[in-house]
Amino acid sequence: MENCLDTFRTYIKALGEKLKIEDLDLDENNDCYLAFDGKYFVKCSVDAEKAQVCLLAYIGSLPGDKEIFYRGILKSCHFWCDTAGANISLDPADGTLLLTQYCDMSMLNSDAFYNVLEKFVNAIEHWDTKRLEEWMAMTGNETEASSATASPGDGGVPGMMMFGA
């Protein structure tokens, strides 16, 4: 179990080097929070018992007509055709949409982790754009669309690393 945590820390350190972020490391809960372009927030964590890395991002909340949007989500998740291998789900606590991805550590190294993270962030960006376009088309009111640009929680995430422009 400790070996998985050490390996995950190695991935995070290598990511920091690649992105030129000094001292990128895990927090006291062994998580790493990242922000891309100042608007896409990703929590990177490890499930040491299952030897899996988990990526998680809030991608927004549902519009008024949920049934139409649920159908669109289910179509997009069919064989992960529109999610780059990630899953979309509802946060049971508040009903917001989450994009999550688990990766077996046996299939990763530092470069593979970087590639998985890059695809994951691209999927967040896709859903941010796609979701806004769909909601505007469905409701005719862009104010109902909650942007993925808001960070999870109240007032941001402590220790968030920001990069991009």
List its traits:
alpha+beta; elongated; Yope Regulator, Chain: A; single chain; 165 residues; 6 strands
Describe what this molecule looks like in 3D.
This protein has 165 residues and is α+β, with helices and mostly antiparallel strands. The chain has a single domain, classed as Yope Regulator, Chain: A (2-Layer Sandwich). 36% of the residues lie in helices and 22% in strands. It has helices at 2-18, 66-77, 110-139, and strands at residues 32-36, 40-47, 52-60, 87-90, 97-104, 161-163. A six-stranded mixed sheet has the order 4-5-3-2-1-6. Helix 1 (2-18) packs across helix 3 (110-139). The termini are far apart. The model is unreliable at 141-165 (pLDDT under 50).
- CA radius of gyration is 16 Å
Q: How many individual β-strands?
A: 6
How do the strands of the widest beta sheet line up side by side?
Answer: 4-5-3-2-1-6
Largest sheet: 6 strands, mixed
Low-confidence stretches: 141-165
Which structural class should the secondary elements be placed in? alpha+beta
Helicity level? 25-40%
Mean pLDDT: 78
Please report the first level of CATH classification, the CATH class.
Answer: Alpha Beta
What is the domain total for the residues?
A: 1
